[in-house]
Amino acid sequence: MRIFVTGGSGYVGRSTIRALVREGNEVTALARNDRASQTVSDVGAIPVRGELTDTALLREAAKYVDGVIHLAASEEKPDEVDLAAAEALLDGAHGSPYVHTGGVWVYGDTNGVVDEDARRNPPRLRAWRLANEERVLARAETGGHPVLVMPGLVYGESGGLLERFFVEPGRATGAVPCIGDGSNHWALVHRDDIVALYVLALRAPAGSVYAGVSDQHPTQQEVTEALSHAAGCPGSTVTLSLDEALAQMGPIAEAFALDQRFTGARAREQLGWKPAHQDALADLARGR
Predict the structure, then answer these.
(1) Which of 84, 147, 181, 196 is deepest in the core (most CB within 10 A)?
(2) 171, exposed or middle or buried, with CB in 10 Å at 0-12, 13-18, 19+?
(3) What range(s) does the NAD-dependent epimerase/dehydratase domain occupy (predicted)?
(4) What integer pLDDT is reported at residue 124 of this predicted model?
(5) Containing H/E element for 2?
């Protein structure tokens, strides 16, 4: 297959390109500058120079491939940029598979283990995703082939949000932050496992929705204690109130404070997804 990827130079994107290439696919990837072009080239993709806001380029790039995986995100006006990019890619892809990235944070606190059909109550940081995802999925009714993948909190290979907001501060201060008493559960997924789901999602029926989560439900306290080992300060954590976390981390602290537990059964049953990483705490402690 020929696959077009946005966000290919990012933490998840690089591994997604590698996985697609390993399976014999030809991959083109959006690249906003020389550095991004070199990064996607190094992992086996052909760079397509342009910005996520260049909807004409996105529409054209999606015309000549067999599938699209949209991983890129914009820090400025993320709601508008995400929707415009998604609609341009869907227009170009016509009836070819288009895999859109969401995230399980849109569900808010889950009050137990839930699946993709649970009520959604997002924190303010991700509230805009609801309307965008509805618009994307509605394209299945007019001949499009959208598929929504909602990753949990992605970890692995010393990267991602956990590295930025927990491990790096731990290295700098000698204690990894923990919001509140840490009794809330986090929905985690290893980078390699979510990449495998993105690849499988190219074969999913139009309108499908998948939570990309492992079935492990560690508490935030368990995770931060594991991360303290990766940060070089074993067993050392510091408690932050939510207000303190908001001041230190910004609005994302509200998402880290959520209590979430999910099942990834739908992806396993429908797509044959088999998450390989079954000991998140050990992986996190070793930076794997």
Answers:
(1) 147
(2) middle
(3) 3-206
(4) 87
(5) strand 2-6
